[in-house]
Amino acid sequence: MAEEKALNDQMLARRQKLATLVDDLHLDPFGKRFERSAKAQELHDLYDNSTLEELEAGQHEVTIAGRMVAKRGAGKVIFADFRDVSGKIQVYAKRDDLGENYPIIKRADLGDFLGIKGIMMKTEAGELTVLATHLTHLSKALRPMPDKFHGISDVETRYRKRYLDLIANEESFKKFQQRSHIISAIRAYMDKNEFLEVETPILQTEAGGAAARPFITHHNALNIDMYMRIATELYLKRLVVGGMERVYEIGRIFRNEGMDPKHNPEFTTMESYASYWDFTDVMNETEGIFKAAAGVVSDDLKITYQGTEIDLSKNFARAHMIDLIKDRTGVDFWQDMSVEAAQKLADEHHVKYEKYWAVGHIINAFFEEFVEDTLVQPTFVYGHPVEVSPLAKRNADDSRFTDRFELFIMGGEYANAFTELNDPIDQRARFEAQAAERENGNDEAEGIDEDFIEALEYGMPPTGGLGVGIDRLIMLLTDSDTIRDVVLFPTMRPE
């Protein structure tokens, strides 16, 4: 109660200062357009290595703007720190220099935005500083800023009020800058390799392209239920049918599923499709994408995630799922076996399974139980069973498996890719098998997308496809242990 009263007292004091700006100083408390000549980091880059004498002789005049985040001194002299998007710079304000302009900074609160015209200098301690010659009030903060020493103690507040997190936490601010730069690096890599960036529908009449539960909405004008997309895959492959040989999309995906440190109901993926490629070509593409992204945060492509060094500079390892299972458990799934035999092996190794599962499902469960967590350095795992890969092409040498891979790092999946299934007859059979799974209780199984099958019947060239979880990649590259730290506005339960 006392804390709430103190907050209200501070807010009242700020509103009184707001009135002072209008009544005594005749200023607009919320300012107008302001032209600056440089950002804080640009000044540091230009003048950090200059001596005090060089700056005095040069009389370098600058105009900056930013939020006041610290204030020291009183009376005739004030030192203050101002922050803009690039960083912080110190400002030195003297009443003798500013005259009637001085009350602007004297009465300013932490959080206020000011424009400062001044001369570059250095203090006796050697700190680069702007000696203010004129001040412009740009915006009044009516609420007190978070404590700069303690930040925001309530983690939920960081996610609910991200703007406060960005104000108080420079590390968080930097992380979201890196996110943007990482996505730009991925786009640059894709563009350089002649991929065309496209946009596909978010609202769809059939949710397909992944095994996931969709969000359902209703279109009033058409009087039909529609689904928010759970993947971009099927529409991108329609474009390949149409002759767009290399396409990609970076965009939001929506899945009506649980939430945990690696899952948010809406998240960002990149999917790409390249005509005449197979999954081995896509391995090369994926490795290139990850190296390009890592280059944003590390010159040598080595990063540290949760205390473990990950080397992204080397060639990524490649291994068949069946070989990895055999290495870890001794179980040899290369042998043909009945469902009953696979279930017996699962029972012996305490692997849970559903009654409707086929052998391929059990193989995948063995991999998830015994292998996934052991894959620390980048590893392409290929050869997934047909039963868990409804959109992937069967392997020519062993039709039980598909030409599909997943990329694992630190025990987590970061990419999923395959030689695309372009046989419309086989695709229909796979969809029908998925529909049967749905009837048997798997509500994440896909339905039958008749329009997509029709598109395939017009002919799709051999194609390699890729899906990358952008948020997980950024978690890895920024050493973040929860997706909420890399999504600006994560989904939260209403207060």
Radius of gyration, CA atoms, in whole angstroms = 29 Å
* Low-pLDDT segments, ≥5 res: none
Number of strands: 18
Count of helices? 16
At the fold tier of CATH, the topology name of the largest domain is: BirA Bifunctional Protein, domain 2
In what range is the share of β-strand residues? 15-25%
Largest sheet: 8 strands, mixed
Overall number of structural domains? 2
Structural class: alpha+beta
CATH architecture of the largest domain: 2-Layer Sandwich
CATH C-level of the largest domain = Alpha Beta
The best one-word shape is elongated
In CATH, what is the homologous superfamily of the largest domain? Answer: Bira Bifunctional Protein, Domain 2
Give the strand order, joined by hyphens, for the main sheet: 6-10-11-18-17-16-15-14
Oligomer: single chain
Structure description:
The protein has 16 helices and 18 strands. By secondary structure, it is α+β, with helices and mostly antiparallel strands. The chain has two domains: about 1-145, Nucleic acid-binding proteins (OB fold (Dihydrolipoamide Acetyltransferase, E2P), Beta Barrel); about 165-315 and about 380-485, BirA Bifunctional Protein, domain 2. Strands 6-10-11-18-17-16-15-14 form an eight-stranded mixed beta sheet, sandwiched between helices. The longest helix is centred in the middle third of the chain and has 23 residues, at about 170-190. It is elongated, with a radius of gyration of 29 Å. The two termini are about 20 Å apart. The model has no long low-confidence stretch (mean pLDDT about 95). Its main location: cytoplasm. It catalyses: tRNA(Lys) + L-lysine + ATP = L-lysyl-tRNA(Lys) + AMP + diphosphate. Belongs to the class-II aminoacyl-tRNA synthetase family. One of its GO terms (cellular component) is cytosol.
